Amino acid sequence: MEQFPHLNFIGKVSGRPRLTGGGGSRISDENKSNRSVHAGKLQRWVTSTKSDWHTSLDDRSNDLAAIDTDIVPIFIKFNPGLIGPEFDLERFGIEIISEEEDGFIIGASLDNFRTLEEKINGFINSSHGTAQIADFWSIFDGDRSAWRRDRILSEQLFSKWDEIVDTTTYNLEVSVAFSRSIGSEPDRLKKGGEKRLEEYRRKQVERDELLLQRQNHFQEFIATYGRLISSIVEFGDSFGCEVAISGIGLKDLVTNYQFVFEVNEIEEVSGIEGGTGENNEIDIEILPPNASAVTVAVIDSGIMEGNKYISAAIDPTRSLSYLKNDASKADYVAGGGHGTKVAGAVLFPKGVSQINQPYQLPCFIRNVRILNALNQLTDKYPAELMQRVVADNADCKIFNLSVGSRAPYRFKHMSTWATSIDKLMHENNVLFLIAAGNISKDDIRYYLSNGLIYPNYLEEPDCRLSNPAQSSFALSVGSINHSTFTDHNWTSIGDVEEVSAYSRIGTGIWGHIKPDVVEYGGGMVESNNGMRQINYHTETSTELIRSTLHGGTALGRDSAGTSFATPKVAHIASLLWELYPDEGVNLIRALIVQGARLPSDHFFNPTINSIRHFGYGLPSLDRVTRNSDHRITFYNTGTIKAEEANLFSLKLPAELLNPGNEFDILIEVTLSYTANVRRTRQKTKSYLSTWLDWTSSKLDEKFEVFTGRTLVDLNNDRDNVVEDDDSGEVIKWKIRERSDWGSVDGLNRNNSTIQKDWVILKSYELPEEIGFSVRGHKGWDKDHRRIPYALTVSVEILGANIPIYESIRSENRVEIEAESETEVAIN
User: Which among 232, 516, 724, 827 could bridge 18 via Cys, Cβ 3.0 to 4.6 Å?
Assistant: First the structure.
């Protein structure tokens, strides 16, 4: 296989984006017009909040944990138009603990409101630096316990709050905010660099000391009521851990501990057990992987390493077990194992019976056991465990995680588990593939028995993706049926290439397009006797390698699940990374999604449910790894920073544009990127240090005109962005960069870190040249550090046996050009 050709890089445009709108507000304007009235209200709210805080602390029992009385919890309603990725309240002496919806902020006054009161008093006289007091719309001075319970507790804990027993011990996951930005490390070689570097080092030491103080204080607080049961995991703006805490301690933590922003029950984590069906074994010649093959870490229940079909891919001396007091790496899960099936699906994505002999294994497998014989994760904090696994397997590029919570992901903050994966992917250039998760046979039966039909029941809240499949950077994989079946007793639930009956669906957190892709994970059957019995069946299950520790054969068709769809995508990823060994994770992500396609009419007429069920669709190994006479894919990789755009050009040959032709031409574009992350904020653009999007030129738009408008900020929150102007007709991409623009109503591709879109045009509609830009936008990183990305563009002729590859390739031969710099004026 040859690598895809590079997309023509034209140049770089840098300058500030031309932003429209502001943060102006009728309420803020009225506050400025009535300064004394507004200041009086704020002062009363502050006085009340401060009084209630100190009164409640005076009433606390001396047996409770020590708390700094000068740090006061505060709940603010702030002008939502001004809350962006870089937003903070430090100049008011307030640390943001959690950004909530609609301008609400959980904060902590670090100086007993002294700074805020000074600003309020100055606001009356229009003192310099106090104008933004008008944007403090309200300060909640009611029952602190009520608003903190509502905002900090998980739904389940909130519903049980009145049942919390003071003397009962609860195992929980706790997240604590800590935000101290010190900027990026200065260049010592620049003028004054040594002095600036010395100051930076001083701030770094100060920040580390403050973080340690907060962590130590938190541990002392917990020690009053219980203990930590995991290590502390840091996330830049916060840290998290698991604790065992008494009921009275839990109440004190939620009501009074100023820096806590999330308290969850510890979720049950597991894989999916199989059945007992068996296949006859097949004798085939198996060759070990190439020396250049990559290693896929299977994070699971262990692997039966001696299984004859997979043994040549595994080095037993490198296998690891993370189980407490159990060093075995074997797969003891009943019903043929779990990790063994997953490993087999990486190596034999179509099953053993479908391959040609001799068969060379595509990659190496690293056996990483984290689940016990009951297929459960116990005594481990998942966020910490992911860090250990990646650190201990530094030679692995790909990590398959067919393991997840039995509960759906939570909406507000990215979970510690998912955040840990995002952080590891960005910092270590590795790829995680995560199963979307399954709903149980009992749940399917319950939904069907209560009048919910397939697939509508998948829209129920409990059927959304399981944690950590909402990870912003990982590839999340759902499942579709590979067959349709019926006999006297059973009928398959759903037809071929419809969503599997058990597969959890998207969208993901903050409108992410999730799952990213789907694969054939097997289907389920329903009984024909009217009793709504749900089961696996050999005709709807995929062929998998089995562990024989509990008997049975080494092959079987007895299981179905997103657990077994995910490794089939890992198979594709392993071949891609062997083909592109010097490229980063973003190209691998982009090419997998670029080669995916929605099934049947969903591709031509996608709806939001198409995306919720299938993501971007089913990846084709041929499309992902190869060009053909009828399809050509280009790519480019690079780095970019906020307030910068990289420009690319795709030229189309004249013979394809002949007005007499009416060929259907498919153009697909995928952008993939990673960035640094933080947990205390919500929405993609606040979660990421820098966020990217891509735009295309309009039909018949001159490239210089496209360059001039390419840095216009198309932030989805700004409703006054104009779609059309005199520069030409827009290309009608399917999803688009605003939720009300594309044919998929309600989705915005810019909310995701993998942004794919496609369009089908008649050949005579095509311009001679299409321009693309990758644009960097400000997130929370005030230093605008560069982040990596990959851009892929494909052109394919549909429904006509006409070769286009060579003519398009020749038209786009990459020439070495000087990188141009263009400053864009600020409007």
Answer: 827
